[in-house]
């Protein structure tokens, strides 16, 4: 959030009582809607699912591979999902390991990840199964980015 400090300071200098920002824009009006694929499948919205899969931007995979990756993989239980990720993308690192200032050893030793999971914070599994789960994930993860506000 440090990139907004200058904006907040400027608003304060101008005597503003409120500052409207689009903080949740990526998960609301400009959301990629990755949850939509599974939602369309489970609700039997076949035409919408077909259109979403066949017109998925920047995804050169075949329709079948997109269907498996975007519809079936998100439905896997956590242990099976983790095994699939390790098998299919063995060198992929989770975003947490790339962004966190806390080393894995410290996170494990102090129980940080266990407490975060208990609070509903999702690590690594970035494919919500439904729109409802996507919204719940948004609210569970929000304070991690905005705590300094």
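-> sequence recovered:
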């Amino acid at each position: 959030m440090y990139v907004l400090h200058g904006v907040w300071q400027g608003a304060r200098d101008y005597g503003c009582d409120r500052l409207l920002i689009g903080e949740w824009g990526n998960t609301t009006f400009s959301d990629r809607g990755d949850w939509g694929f599974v939602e369309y499948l489970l609700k039997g919205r076949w035409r919408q699912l077909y259109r979403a899969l066949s017109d998925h931007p920047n995804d050169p995979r075949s329709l079948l591979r997109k269907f498996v990756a975007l519809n079936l993989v998100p439905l896997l239980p956590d242990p099976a999902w983790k095994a699939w990720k390790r098998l299919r993308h063995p060198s992929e690192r989770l975003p947490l390991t790339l962004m966190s200032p806390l080393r894995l050893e410290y996170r494990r030793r102090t129980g940080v990840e266990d407490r975060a999971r208990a609070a509903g914070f999702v690590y690594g599994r970035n494919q919500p199964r439904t729109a409802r789960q996507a919204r719940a994930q948004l609210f569970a993860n929000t304070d991690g980015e905005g705590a300094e506000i």
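The radius of gyration is 19 Å.
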